[in-house]
User: What shape does this take?
Amino acid sequence: MRVRQHVNPLKSDLLEIAEVPRIAAAGRVIEVELGSAEAHFLLDRARDDRDTQFVGIEIRRELVVATNGECARLGVDNVHCVFANMSVDMPRLFFAGSVQRFFLNFPDPWFKSRQHKRRVIGPGLVREIARALAVGGELFVQTDIFALALDAMAALEGETSSFANVREPWTFLRESPFVAKSRRERQCELEGARVWRLLYRRVSR
Ligand SMILES: C[S@@+](CC[C@H](N)C(=O)[O-])C[C@H]1O[C@@H](n2cnc3c(N)ncnc32)[C@H](O)[C@@H]1O
Assistant: This one.
């Protein structure tokens, strides 16, 4: 099966994906990777945790089909990927307060300034993540593009924000608190590229 390298999330058919499911896990904790690609990160997390329901949201449909096939082949029943556009489908996907942790691992290949409007992390997505997260839940972001890390931080900091920086305001993590690694994360390690990491907790305001 041919898998496209990139798609444009603002393309009209991707703004109106039919049959986006509501994510529910019957009493299980839910963790979500937005832009999960082959779900390497979630499969890593599921290796030591068979109780949590891991959900990948991915806009390349072929990759969703292939990844769910791979999970079935591996016998992993608590990782599932969903074809949806995180920029518009969050209200359809998640009940308020239903998710314990969101991961945004290297979310954005669109880093040139003329592609600024395609960047996924902004006030709209941050608002939707805050709505879907349980109070006390977490949002982890990592990227090798400093400008994107700063944009994400700017969207998450502030006195009226629904998020508190787990380290200190305006501070990056020194290293990942997670053993799991995404494919892009491993590639950055191989290339010696610097990775910027942020961890925020949902607070009740
Ligand atoms: C640079 S890749 C990173 C993949 C993986 N998280 C990793 O760290 O290896 C970004 C992924 O996000 C997906 N993506 C981009 N925009 C998206 C959107 N609006 N909704 C859902 N997925 C999206 C892309 O198709 C791609 O698989």
User: Anything to note?
Assistant: The pocket of S-adenosylmethionine is lined by residues 9, 35-37, 57-60, 85-87, 105-107, 109, 120, 182-185 (CB under 6 Å). Residues 28-202 form a domain with the Rossmann fold fold (CATH 3.40.50.150).
